[in-house]
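Consider the record:
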Amino acid sequence: MRDGWGGGRLPCVIALLGTLAAGCGEPGPTPEDAQAFLERAEEQLLELWIDAGRAAWVQNTYITDDTNILAAEAQATVIGVTMALAAEAAQFDAVDLPQDLRRSLLMLKTSLGVAAPSNPALQAELAVISTGMESTYGRGEYCPDNAEACLSLPQMERLFAESRNTDELLDIWAGWRMVSPPMRDQYARFVELANAGASDLGFADLGEMWRAGYDMPPDEFVAELERLWGQVQPLYEALHCHVRAELAEEYGSAVVPLGQPIPAHLLGNMWSQTWANVYDIVGPARADPGYDLTRLLESNRVDELEMVRYGERFFDSLGFAPLPETFWDRSLFLEPGDRDVVCHASAWDLDYESDVRIKMCIGRNGEDFVTIHHELGHNYYQRAYRGQSPLHRTSANDGFHEGIGDTIALSITPEYLVDVGLLETAPPADRDLGLLLRLALDKVAFLPFGLMVDQWRWKVFSGEIAPEGYNEGWWDLRAEYQGIRPPLPRSEADFDPGAKY
């Protein structure tokens, strides 16, 4: 080894000088910088969210080529700005931040329902695809042979709930699913673009990005869902076994073979996601709940708007302030006869302050009476967090928002119906079996359906289910989780996932 300023020590001196020079440079970002960045980002995003929300409302309630374009442009702007802000936020990745700031930065990334690549042209393409698929669904109808008029989705849903003619049910089931094959290639491109955007944000795919919003690692979230489902699964399987046996007795074992999945067109719902509409077939003897909510609404001459008033009075009784007049002026309560709309029930918060609305093609029936209370639960929750910073004007997670709505819906008990004057007296306690079964047909039956839909999406985004296997993957999961099968042969020429909003 040589002494002095030879080759042994010179590199050390250079390294030391480099370190000193770096220490004299610009200081790195601080927690205060992160706070200022978030405040600026939230102010910018809030304005864009409001603009995009208004454009989406018009597009959902007045579907035309022009409203599709306006909604797509507004959505593309939100995507572009959010992606740019998320990239800028990367400067704080190595900064030691308080947990609330770190979580807010994650919420910024996951605030997008759909991410897109940084290329503006691809962002615009994704927005056009998204609004286009929504428009196709909203415009969907079925025109039966020899029928005087075509059927809208709400009309088909009512027929599905009431008809016991298996040929009619099969025809409607297949007819509605003719709306979705044109969306198949669009959806494959949607997945490609959204996955690229999620990758730019640091996620493996869009599914992982969605699962990142539950305050646990995405993989742990999947495992937790399976653990919880495992606890409920025995109850569901017992319910499934009972329903299948009763349907077989009603329609014959040739139509409903015992030991096989239930045909999807016989459960009183277009998507077999809830089964309460077949209670008259599967309810146990001498377990009549004692009332029929649809008939109560009819006998009390409660129209669609008054059904919403009942919902508002429910929240009044809990001490909440009445809904603003703008709610009544701007909400969509009935299916218009002069234009196409997206009838799927949803709750909206247009200005993140007080402009709350529901969008729903209400039918005068018990199912929609409960749904109204559910949707209003969203609206009142939206009003409750309006004092938070913009990124926090949302639920703790998506599931929590639905939990609020469903908890409210569970309050539609016989005692409640007596209190509001729709029912004279509550049924005796020995009628509880019927009430509980009806509730199970609604709530327990839905659980594997909701889980299955997410599983299909996640597997599509991860590539486990490829585009050429979309439909097969859908029905494999329906058989696995729900014990449901298609009533007709299906192929990859179909796109049955697209028939569900």
Summary: Strands lie at 141-142, 151-152, 262-263, 346-349, 356-359, 484-485.
